[in-house]
């Protein structure tokens, strides 16, 4: 009888241990292949991960304007995350070339698109940090279907605003025909922002 009771007691203890171990696992969602792949680099040892990020950052360097003599324009308004208005022959609307940000407001519904307000605020902060002045350069296509200038926008420190918006996770790569000069870089920057969960990618996967 004593052996039977001892066996039952050991069985109960064993079941309790198994339950303590298995229940938390059952409550933890299984990682998808994509999430595992996106976090693969963070599983590297610290020193190797730093080397990995350094190499990635070098490949994804933000373009810097070489022509410091390009005209400087005063920004009159930031419309949203991919459009500004500058003092250029009056008021000229500038649509950022090669990328697309969520709309702060849409003319069709008047509603704000997901992360549209954040994209607008980020663009505004970058322009303000540039003293409200930018330089513009153009690609083969210089106008969009709405008559706005399509341009690469450069901040006072020489960095390209288009690329910064994508790299910081507030815009997507967006191509037109013929292919814009920086579209491949924007695509790589967008992928990196998504993998590193920056900007809108912190919650949009």
Report on the structure:
A hairpin with a 2-residue loop joins strand 1 (72-80) and strand 2. The protein starts with a helix and ends in a 10-residue tail after the last helix. A 5-stranded mixed beta barrel has the order 1-2-3-6-5. A two-stranded antiparallel sheet has the order 4-7. It has 6 helices and 7 strands; from the N terminus they run H-H-H-E-E-E-E-H-E-E-H-E-H. It is elongated and about 95 Å long. The protein has 205 residues and is of the alpha+beta class.
Intertermini distance? 60 Å
pLDDT average, as an integer?
80
Question: Portion of residues in helices?
Answer: 25-40%
Separate helix tally = 6
Summing up helix and strand content along with how strands pair, one would put the structural category as alpha+beta
Radius of gyration: 25 Å
Strand composition percent: 15-25%
Largest sheet: 5 strands, mixed, barrel
In terms of quaternary structure, the protein is single chain
What is the H/E string? Answer: HHHEEEEHEEHEH
Number of strands: 7
CATH architecture of the domain at 72-202: Beta Barrel
Anisotropy-based shape: elongated
Strand order of the largest sheet: 1-2-3-6-5
Question: What are the key terms here?
Answer:
OB fold (Dihydrolipoamide Acetyltransferase, E2P), five-stranded mixed barrel, 205 residues, alpha+beta, two-stranded antiparallel sheet
Concise structural overview:
This protein has 205 residues and is α+β, with helices and mostly antiparallel strands.
């Amino acid at each position: 009888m004593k052996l039977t009771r001892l066996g039952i007691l050991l069985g109960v203890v064993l079941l309790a241990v198994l339950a303590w171990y298995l229940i938390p696992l059952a409550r933890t969602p299984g990682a998808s292949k994509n999430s595992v792949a996106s976090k693969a680099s963070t599983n590297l040892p610290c020193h190797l991960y730093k080397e990995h990020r350094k190499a990635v950052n070098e490949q994804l360097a933000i373009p810097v304007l070489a022509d410091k003599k390009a005209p400087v324009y005063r920004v009159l308004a930031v419309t949203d995350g991919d459009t500004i208005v500058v003092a250029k022959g009056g008021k000229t609307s500038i649509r950022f070339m090669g990328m697309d940000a969520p709309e702060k407001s849409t003319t069709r519904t008047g509603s704000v698109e997901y992360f549209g307000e954040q994209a607008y605020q980020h663009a505004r902060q970058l322009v303000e940090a540039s003293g409200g002045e930018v330089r513009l350069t153009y690609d083969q296509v210089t106008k969009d279907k709405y008559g706005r200038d399509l341009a690469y926008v450069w901040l006072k420190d020489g960095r390209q605003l288009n690329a910064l918006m994508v790299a910081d996770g507030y815009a997507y790569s967006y191509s037109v025909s013929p292919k814009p000069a920086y579209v491949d870089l924007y695509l790589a920057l967008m992928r990196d922002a998504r993998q590193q969960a920056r900007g809108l990618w912190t919650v949009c996967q």
